[in-house]
Amino acid sequence: MRVALFVTCVNDAVYPSTGIATVRLLERLGVEVDFPEAQTCCGQPQFNTGYRAQTEPLVRRTAAVFEGYEYVVTPSGSCAAMVRQHYPKIGDASAASLASRTYELTEFLVDVLQVTDVGAYFPHTVTYHPSCHGLRMLGLGDRPRRLLEAVDGLELRELPGADECCGFGGTFALKNSDVSTAMGQDKVNNAVSTGADVLCGADNSCLMHIGGVLRREEAPLRALHLADILASTREEPLV
Amino acid sequence: MSGTFVGMPSFPRAAKEAVHNKTLRDNLRHATHTIRDKRAKAVAELADWAELREAGKQIKDHTLRHLDRYLVQLETRVTEAGGTVHWAADADEANRIVADLVKATGESEVVKVKSMATQEIGLNEALEAEGIAAYETDLAELIVQLGDDRPSHILVPAIHRNRGEIRDIFREKMASWGRAAPHGLSDTPADLAEAARLHLREKFLRAKVGISGANFMVAETGTLVVFESEGNGRMCLTLPETLISVVGIEKVVPTWRDLEVFLQTLPRSSTAERMNPYTSTWTGTTDGDGPRTFHLVLLDNGRTDTLADEVGRQALRCIRCSACLNVCPVYERAGGHAYGSVYPGPIGAILSPQLRGTQSEIDASLPYASSLCGACYEVCPVAIDIPEVLVHLRERVADQGGKGHRLEKAAMKAAGWVLDHPGVLGTGERVASRTRKLHPSKLPGAGAWTRSRELPEMPAEPFRDWWKKNRKPKTDGKKP
C-alpha cells in the first residue's frame, strides 16, 4: 500500500521528529510512504482567523498536491479536521475528494490497517490529552487509547478533565493570551496530578502550547506526540 | 439599579481581570462543573436525545423560515383572546411602548419575571428614567439588582457570587428596596432563600403591573409560555391587574405539539432537571382569572438582520438554556461580564455581534473569544454550530478592517505568498533552523506567547530536508 504523508506546516518546520516517526512507523507496518514536496499549509490558521480569501489558494494547492493518492495520512487531528470538515465548503470537487481520502494517523492505523498493536516499546507512564478537533470534529474516540494501551512497557494514566480544551486554539493563544494561558495551566496541573512522565497528544500545535506551559512552570513531565511513542521500539527506542 | 454594558472594553482586556480574580475563578469553576455534570446525567437518561435535538432544530428552522406567517397568526390569536399586540423595531421603541403602558395604569412600580429580552433592551433603566421602579423577582436577578451589579450568566445571573457575598448584599441593601433582611441573617441557603421570599412576597401582593418575557409563544392559540424553577414568575403572571410581556420575535413556535420537544430538552439542558417545577401559560385575558389587561410587545431589535444572514441565522434557534456557557472553558475562566452583554458565553459571542453589529470594540472582539473547541456545539439542544458562526463572524470583522486587522491581513497575505511557494518556505525553515541558537528566548512582538509560555526549540533541520536526505531517492516524489 502506498500513502501520501501530509506532514503539516507545524510538523515540517518545528516538529520534524513527528514526521520522521510517522514515516518510520508506517514503513515498519509495510506501508510505502510518499512525501509530495509541494505541500505547505492546509490553511487552517487563515480560515479560523477569518481570512477566507487567503485560505482559498492554500485549499486549491493542497487539493492539487494530493490529487491521485488513495490515502493521505497526517499526524495532526486539527489539520485532518480542517480538510475533512471545511474543504468541501471552501473548495471545488477536488477539495471535496481530498476530504474523503484524508485520514488522521490513528484512524489510518486502526480503521484502514486494522492494527492496534504496532509493535512499539516505550517504558514510561503516559497520560493522554485528546485534542478537541480529534475528539469532537473527527470523533477519534478510543483509537488513540487503544494504540497506547498496546504499547509494550507503557502505563496509561487517566487525565482528569481530559476532554477540556488546553487553550491553544490557533491565533486564540495570542489574541486571548490570558485566558489561553489559564486554560493551559489547568491542563498542566491535571497532567501533573497523574504522576505520569509523559503527556501524549496527537496534535503538535496543542502540544506546542501545553509543552510551552510545562517548561515555563518546570513541570516534571514532557509533552510528546503519539507518533513519536508509536515509532519507538526495543531496537530503536526513543530517549 | 443594575448597570448596563455600554462602553465595554474588548473581550481580552475584560477577561484579563477576571482570569486573575481568584474568588471569581473559584465561584465559576465550582458552579459550572456542578451543573455540567448534572446536565450530562439528565441528558443521558433519554435514549432519544439525538432525535429530540434534531427535532428542536427542525422546528426552529421551519418557524424561522416562515416567521412572517406565524407572527401574523400569533397576533390574530392573541387579539382574539383579548390581548393587545405591539410591534417594536428596536430597544428604544420597545421601552417607550412599555413605559407608556405602565404610565397609563397610573402606577409607578412593576414586578418583573426574569426575562432576557427586557435585559437586552435595558428596560429597567428606561423605566427608572420615567420614574417607574422595576423590581426583579427571580432570586438571582434580585441579588444582581440589589448588588447594583450586572448579570453574568443566562440561567444563573449571580453565578459569580458566593453565599457570603449574597448575605452581605441582602444585609446592606434589602432595606432600601423594601422589606429589610432579618436580623443576624446567616449565609446558609435556606436562610437566604427565606429572606428573599419575605422581601419578594411584599412586592407581589402590592404590585398592580407585572412585566415578563416568554420562553415560547404558540402561534395556533396565541399562548405564551414561561418555564421556571422558583414560582416567582407565576406570582407575577397571575397576581397583577396588568401584564405586559416583551418577547423576541424568534420565540414563536407553530403549535402546542412543538412544545413537547422543548419541554424535554430545555429543562435538562438548562437546570439539569427532568422537568422544570413551574410551566405557566397565558392566553389573552380570562374573566375572573389573572390579569385584566394583557399586552404583548413583539421585539425585533436586530433579529430580522440576523435572519438575513444564512450562516448566522442559526443563532436564532437558541432557547436560552445556557448549556454552552457551562461547558465553555473560556467562559469558565473569563466570567460572564467580560462578554459585555446580557448574553454571555459562546451563544453571546455569536448573538450579540449579530444583534448589535460588529462596530464597537467589544462586539468586534467577541467572535475571537473562543478556542473553537466545539464543546458548545456538542451540548446545544438545538444544534447551533457555534464554532461555524464564530468563524463566519470573524470573516466579517476581518473584512471591515479596523484596529489590528490591517496589520494582521498584511501578515496573512505575506504568509499566504510564502505558503504558495514551497521553495521559499523550505528556505525560510532552513534559515530558522540554522540560526536557532541565535534566537532570543523572548522574541520582540511575541510577548503574547512568551509572557507565559516557552517557545518550542527549533529543530536542526526541517522535515522536508530530512526527507530529501533520507528518503527522496526511493520515491522521487512521483505521484502514483
How would you sum up this structure, described in words?
Chain B: Residues 451-480 have a biased composition (Basic and acidic residues). Chain B: Keywords: 4Fe-4S, Electron transport, Iron, Iron-sulfur, Metal-binding, Repeat, Transport. The complex is a heterodimer of chains A (239) and B (480). Chain A is of the alpha/beta class and 239 residues long. Chain A has 2 domains: 3-112, 3-Layer(aba) Sandwich (Rossmann fold), CATH 3.40.50; 125-231, Rossmann fold (3-Layer(aba) Sandwich). Chain A is built from 13 helices and 8 strands. In chain A, the strands form 2 sheets. Chain A has a 4-stranded parallel sheet, with helices on both faces. In chain A, strand 7 (198-201), helix 12 (204-216) and strand 8 (222-225) form a beta-alpha-beta unit. In chain A, helix 4 (52-65) crosses helix 6 (93-101) and helix 5 (77-90) packs antiparallel against helix 6. The radius of gyration of chain A is 17 Å and the shape is globular. The two termini of chain A are 30 Å apart. The mean pLDDT of chain A is 97. With 480 residues, chain B is α/β, with parallel strands linked by helices. Chain B has a domain at 407-470. Chain B is built from 24 helices and 10 strands. Chain B has helices spanning 11-19, 22-44, 49-65, 67-80, 91-105, 116-120, 123-129, 139-146, 163-177, 189-206, 232-238, 256-270, 303-307, 323-327, 329-334, 345-356, 361-365, 375-379, 386-399, 405-419, 422-434, 447-450, 463-470, 472-475; strands at residues 84-88, 109-112, 133-136, 209-212, 216-218, 223-228, 242-248, 252-253, 278-283, 293-299. Chain B has a 6-stranded parallel sheet, with helices on both faces. Chain B has a 4-stranded mixed sheet with strand order 8-5-6-9, sandwiched between helices. In chain B, strand 5 (216-218) and strand 6 form a beta hairpin. In chain B, helix 9 (163-177) runs parallel beside helix 10 (189-206). In chain B, 49% of the residues are buried. The model of chain B has no long low-confidence stretch (mean pLDDT 93). Classes of the chains: A alpha/beta (239), B alpha/beta (480). At the A-B interface, helix 1, helix 2, strand 2, helix 3 and helix 4 of A face helix 1, helix 15, helix 18, helix 19 and helix 20 of B.
